[in-house]
Design goal:
heterodimer; A: alpha/beta; five-stranded parallel beta sheet; 34 strands; disordered N terminus; B: mainly alpha; 11 helices; elongated; binds flavin-adenine dinucleotide; binds iron/sulfur cluster
Chain lengths: 670, 183
């Protein structure tokens, strides 16, 4: 575990236990009436006063209060204590508090132990006061066994490479990179596609304020390109990651884009002249076309084309090179190879975003079969002034303006039978937005929305939705759609409305599916490279859902944006800034200190069986190639103890939780 | 039940008509059903008050106008008072009755309409309601000859039912009637 300066350094008092008689102090907390109301604290204190080796035993109203801590500090000094037991609440609450108090008196903090007589005693035995008192005494006896054998430990330290890596340059990655760079640290930003911005580059206007996505995104993407502290690698992917917090070694594969970035001026003559046309454009979600050499969209950052080698005539037939002929700065390089770049960084932010559900799961909705059934991101492109219809709402089949548009929510999401039981969390809001924007453009059109619930939990969201209904006249029908079929140039939508108890059939001109937000297809492979956990759907898992929402269980790796769970832009940006601040907290450390309670290996006993390697989730165990015995990477070890249980030889022990200590603790309990 | 939405029904003419007649935004209703929860007549209704609004939202004109609910609504305004979206449902019910009469929809609750008619005609005649005549005419016209007959002595004794009409300013009342009919 990382303890970023939790415990300030002072001179440590060196009184090894084995050579001198133990001088232990026992401090029993009343916790108001929480403990004292049940446990006879005075009796407990007098019990321990009699024990040899315990030189001080006292009860006090609130040990965690300032005078309480002061009591511990002065007693350590006066009575020359070399071990302390605080019988109080759970160590999760105040272990650090009391260890700090000991440190102030010059006692090694790892010789302070907590006996939990609140959660594990007084709270659960409120009606059995006598028995509770007996149990409290037993708990303290057992902790006494541990303290007697506790060793003086010291945190270890390692260096920090003051540079960060951000993987994925959607709005999450961009925000995190800018925040870190603005604080003065260099950032390496790696993006898989040929330009940055992620999904936001495809959006037209954004809920809940309806500001245009490009207007708020473009300043950010431009800022990235103009921030010297950010080194941007587009059309690049992570090849390999090794090392650990403060010292990650990264290999980045810069895929060959057939264009020399440093030379290209972004004039675009190549894509203008390229004879290979009509390739479905990824940026337009297949509703527009591009050439074989292309810049995704006019405001792309970087404004540098890429040759799609699959479609390019030259790569197929060996002839063409039209682009090269016209390219004045001679930026086209047909021989360009993938390049591997090595970087060293101290912290990593993962921000690889999401992908929408494709056409596989919902055959009954005919997506991919009927031209006028599109998904929501395609509808964004229809709305966009720079989209394939220049912002006019025209249906794909015949370019007519649709007068009845049906929006279907929860397509895939919240459908256990399709393996996506979760809520995609953003579609309710963007569908309200779509129905609104549609009405703005097609005044005599009517929008219908099939929904199960409207989830509008953000700030201003409920009001936004109400506006779609009351002012923009979208009609919401409560129920799932059963199926769609084509009839006389219309898409017939068969659904129902539970509110009126009616089966509904709509003869629609166009249907828009709010398809589920799924993990990025590359997510699991990346997670394995990074050694971060992910859930069964491929979303990366945070260290704690409430208290550590941007950290992973691997030190130095943080999460931002929709790669962790579906989320909207405000939440994505908030999380990205939170991840950046975690990174800054890490990079601003001179040294990283690591909790000394780690596994240790007894070389003499270890048989090199490797069971501990399998048991360790954190990758802290390794078999030494030469000695053929197990080793512990202390900085990675979280002190969980899994390996000590796995080890059949007792070769692996956890510091201050040795087998002897635990057994003698159990002995006195029995 | 099945409902087809096509280029005709999607025009929402009926909602517009109800909105115009009542002055109430029908789409403000988000179907929480609090109106129905409090409605004292709900037990007798064929559609709950919120369902009437819902059907209006979807343009189910025939179903709404033929419902018993719009005639059973007592206009007590419990719904109106409690609606979180400020939908004056009682006013909507009024509007629906007016539309139903205008469109000559065969009333599902004949007695209610009959009662309303006789009530108003006694008011027009005497300037205020005359219970004696009203009950007599209603019982005869509706065919429930002896309805509530045993309550009469008690009401007479308490002065709640009069043998002779108490005339008030008949002329003023006539003017009011004329005024509203002109609107
Ligand atoms: C139809 C639709 C409409 C929406 N409308 C709104 C709205 O109006 N308001 C709102 O607040 N939100 C809206 N959203 C949500 C918004 O799109 C997301 O909140 C936002 O895009 C999340 O940003 P992100 O950076 O986490 O992910 P993304 O935008 O997905 O960006 C991730 C980036 O990482 C890159 N990447 C992926 N894998 C790798 C890898 N292995 N290596 C390197 N790079 C990688 C991707 O290429 C991409 O550039 C909408 C979403 C959809 C689908
Ligand atoms: S070589 Fe020809 S087909 Fe290929 S990108 Fe250049 S112009 Fe287009
Ligand atoms: S956000 Fe709304 S539409 Fe999307 S899955 Fe959740 S409930 Fe369904
Ligand atoms: S399994 Fe062992 S080496 Fe790995 S983190 Fe836990 S205690 Fe440390
Ligand atoms: S209380 Fe108001 S909002 Fe709720 S169902 Fe009734 S009319 Fe609609």
């Amino acid at each position: 575990m990382l303890v970023v300066d939790q415990l300030p350094k002072t001179e440590l008092q060196e009184i090894p236990f084995k050579t001198k008689i133990p001088r232990i102090g026992v401090f029993i907390c009343h916790c108001g009436i929480n403990i004292a109301g049940v446990v006879d604290v005075e009796k407990v204190a007098s019990e321990f006063a009699k024990i040899p080796g315990v030189v001080h035993s006292i009860d006090y109203k609130y040990m965690c209060s300032n005078p309480g801590q002061e009591l511990i500090t002065t007693t350590i000094k006066e009575k020359k204590l070399n071990g302390v037991i605080v019988a109080a609440c759970s160590p999760r609450m105040h272990e650090t508090t009391f260890r700090n108090a000991a440190l102030k008196a010059g006692l090694n903090p790892y010789r302070v132990e907590i006996a939990n007589i609140r959660e594990q005693c007084s709270w659960v035995h409120q009606n059995e006061k006598e028995k509770a008192t007996e149990k409290a005494i037993q708990i303290i006896y057992s902790i006494l066994e541990k303290v007697r054998e506790d060793q003086t430990l010291e945190a270890s330290h390692s260096d920090v490479e003051k540079k960060a890596l951000v993987i994925g340059a959607g709005i999450a990655g961009i925000q995190a990179a800018l925040d870190i760079a603005q604080a003065g640290y260099p950032v390496i930003l790696v993006e898989k596609e040929s330009c940055i911005g992620g999904h936001m580059t495809k959006l037209a206007e954004t809920f809940p304020t309806l500001d245009c996505a490009a207007c708020i995104l473009t300043p950010r993407t431009v800022e990235v390109s103009q921030t010297p502290k950010i080194k941007l690698y587009t059309y690049s992917e992570i090849e390999e990651i090794s090392g650990l917090v403060g010292d990650f070694r990264v290999k980045i594969r810069r895929k060959a884009r057939s264009v020399i970035e440093e030379r290209c001026t972004g004039c675009g003559i190549c894509q203008e002249k390229c004879p290979k046309k009509n390739i479905p454009s990824e940026h337009e979600e297949g509703m527009g076309t591009r050439k074989a050499i292309y810049i995704s969209f006019p405001q792309a950052v970087p404004n540098i084309p890429v040759i799609d080698r699959e479609s390019c005539i030259f790569y197929k037939t060996g002839k063409c090179k039209v682009c090269q002929k016209f390219c004045e700065p001679e930026a086209i390089d047909f021989e360009q190879q993938d390049e591997i770049i090595e970087e060293k960084v101290g912290a990593i932010v993962v921000a690889t975003g999401f992908k929408q559900l494709g056409k596989d799961l919902y055959g009954e909705y005919g997506y991919g079969k009927y031209k006028d059934v599109i998904n929501s991101i395609q509808f964004e492109r229809l709305q966009s002034a720079s989209g394939p219809t220049l912002g006019e709402i025209r249906r794909p089949s015949d370019g007519k303006i649709p007068k009845i548009v049906v929006f279907i929510q929860c397509v895939g999401s919240r459908d256990r039978s399709k393996g996506i039981p979760y809520c995609s969390s953003i579609c309710c809001m963007y569908t309200a937005k779509h129905s609104m924007l549609y009405k703005h453009k097609v005044h005599d059109g009517q929008a219908y929305v099939f929904y199960i619930d409207v989830r509008a939990a953000g700030k201003g969201y409920e009001e936004f939705w109400a506006r779609a209904v009351e002012e923009e006249g979208a009609i919401y029908l409560r129920g799932r759609v059963s199926r769609l079929f084509e009839k006389d140039g219309k898409i017939v939508v068969r659904g129902s409305d539970t509110l009126s108890g009616t089966q509904i059939e709509i003869e629609a001109d166009m249907v828009v599916l709010a398809s589920a937000i799924c993990a990025h297809p590359s997510a699991i492979e990346l997670a394995k490279k990074l050694r971060i956990p992910y859930d069964q759907y491929g979303f990366f898992t945070e260290a704690h859902p409430k208290l550590r929402p941007v950290e992973t269980t691997t030190m130095g790796l943080f999460l931002a944006g929709a790669c962790q769970a579906p989320k909207d832009i405000p939440t994505t940006v908030a999380q990205a800034s939170a991840a950046a601040s975690k990174v800054l907290g890490l990079l601003s450390q001179e040294k990283l200190s690591h909790d000394p309670i780690t596994a240790v290996i007894d070389d003499e006993i270890c048989s090199g069986c490797g069971l501990c390697v399998e048991a360790c989730f954190y990758g802290a165990r390794e078999i030494d190639g030469i000695k053929q015995i197990s080793t512990v990477k202390e900085v990675l070890c979280e002190g969980c103890g899994a390996c000590t249980v796995a080890c059949p030889n007792g070769a692996t022990q956890l510091k201050n939780f040795t087998k002897e200590q635990i057994l003698s603790m159990v002995d006195v309990m029995l | 039940m099945k409902w087809l939405i096509d280029s005709d029904t999607s025009k929402l003419e009926f909602v517009r008509e109800v909105e115009e007649e009542s002055g109430i935004k029908i789409f403000a209703c988000y179907q929480c059903s609090k109106c129905s929860a409090g409605c004292p007549i709900a037990f007798e209704m064929d559609y709950l008050p919120n369902q009437i609004i819902r059907m209006a939202q979807l343009g189910m004109k025939e179903r709404v106008l033929a419902s018993r609910t719009i005639w059973l609504c007592a206009g007590c305004e419990t719904c109106t008072t409690r609606c979180p979206r400020e939908v004056d449902l009682a006013a909507v019910m009024d509007a629906l009755r007016i539309i139903a009469l205008r469109e000559k929809v065969k009333p599902s609750e004949r007695d209610v309409q009959l009662f309303n008619k006789i009530f108003l005609s006694t008011v027009r005649k005497y300037g205020r309601v005359f219970e004696g005549e009203m009950i007599g005419r209603f019982n005869i016209s509706s065919g429930h000859l002896f309805k509530d007959i045993f309550k009469a002595p008690k009401l007479l004794k308490r002065g709640r039912l009069k043998i002779f009409p108490a005339l008030t300013d008949v002329k003023k009342m006539k003017d009011i009637f004329k005024g509203t009919e002109d609107i």
